[in-house]
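Task: complex structure prediction.
Instruction: return structure tokens for all chains below.
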Amino acid sequence: MAVARVPVPEAVEAAPPRALSRWLGAAREFCRARTLGAVGAAVIVVMFAVALLAPVLAPYDPEAVDFAAMLTRPSLAHWLGTDSFGRDVLSRLIFGSRTALMVGFGSSVLGATLGAILGVGSAYFGGRVDLYLQRVMDVFLSFPLIVLALALVAILGNSIPNLIMAIMVPMIPRSALVIRSSALAIREMPFVDAARAAGFGHARIVLRHMLPNVMAPYLIMLTAFLGQAVLAEASLSFLGLGVQEPTAAWGLMLRGAAVEFAETAPWMAIFPGLAISLSVFAFNLFGDSLRDALDPRLRTQ
Amino acid sequence: MWKYLVKRFLLMFPTLLGVAVLTFVLIRVIPGDVVELRYAGDRGSVSQDVLDKERARFGLDQPLYKQFGRWVLGVARLDFGESMWTGAPIWEEIRLRFALSLQVAIMATAVAVVLAIPLGVLAALKQDTWIDYAVRIFSIAGLAMPSFWLGIVFILLLLVVFHWLPPMIYTPFWQNPWENMKQLIWPALAVGYRYSAVATRMTRSAMLEVLREDYIRTARAKGLVQRLILARHALKNAMLPVLTVVALEFAFLIGGLVVTEQVFNLNGLGLLFVQAVAHRDYTLIQALVMLVAGCFIVANFLMDVGYAWIDPRIRYR
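Output:
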């Protein structure tokens, strides 16, 4: 069909000008007003640096077995001691941050994004589509996160990409639910009507016009998922269903020998747990402050 | 009210059916089945014929919809069948484990409520003071620490400080309450702390919201003492969202204790689920999932009904 295209008004399509400087300004404001959140963000940045520089920072090969140095207590040679295979605990912690960040970010970003698309789509189409999608989401929501992830790992097998998949799936309905309720309000906005009047397809309206407007709840869900994903990865690895030996992962380090030798070699049990707690703590601090900054109404959640 | 109740009640069934179908399909996608795993020990020495016969005994040779139909008919008569791995009736497999998980969940809830409500109220009353910050950090820390690690730390502390380990063998409560408590209090504390963190945050924000309401100002203006304002006006109204969170967490705890049970060597529903998945014990997995999801769906239903009963506006949504 050769219908003459109506010229698109600037405000409908164009990205806001000077986006970068606005982001920087917002970041500066965030650090000033939300000290706790900034502390969380700083810890996350440090974690990223550690993960990137792991080969440089780690004093030993994280997978190198040394039976001459089994279960040695923290010393100058091994700052945080060694495990039952004589592997350096500090080096394993440093390399473990890679696993935690990869799985944490991978599953949260995928889960929140897919959930956002479903949520916005569900709100945009409304009617039947909305009703059926909601019922399907209800079904997924009735499983505890860890139970669903466990079943998925059993199906997919346990490699890191599969682990990301397994943790991502339970997050989709949770993200969809929250984002759908924001999108319902946006659907009624005049600019959506304008886009429809301009003859844009459904996909374009959902992805380019509605999705950018649910950024606030999206970021809130995303940061809330980060901590949960790191915890879920640690839990699955602890159960032996996540990351496999000899790869360094924090949850895996707490498995087996760490409990067995808890009395004689407590460093094996304590430090990985501290690493998990500190990173989840940082994610939550940052997420909480971001939520307060972006949307005061959501504070009650 | 009745119309809403009936509608909300009927809505539970499609969800339950969805859970059943999803589980049914999911577990059959997992590679390997129970027959294959049972004879995995003597691979090769068992003929295909025997395997086929075993499969036929469980009805695994029939088309999926037939298997599902048979299972649904059983469930409608509250008959979940027998475990494919042990051959024992499902009800028998689950009963003791369910009692254990339920007890830990109830104890953890008690820990959570006892901690959360006073702390949350205190933080709200002293908003933006050091007390508020301390409570918030305490609760964010609770969300950050994996409860299985907290469990390990508890065991470690008991060992190092008191040279004592909690009993590793489960004693039912009615047999010996003291022995039972000595074992279960630790997982309840480890899980309860995390749970209390969720509830504390909810209490705090709900209280903050209620304290800003006009009727609180009215109560203050007419000279009501602080204690009565809190007890009669503020707390009562702030409790609704807190109860929601507590109820939902409770429903999730019954099946979600998987990892904590591992640490404390508790033979609860979570451990049973992990074993059932490892054995591909289809009937047991299905029953467990229905139980766990059912608890959650029913809790959700009861909460919606409670809400509608307390707040008539909700019925007209």
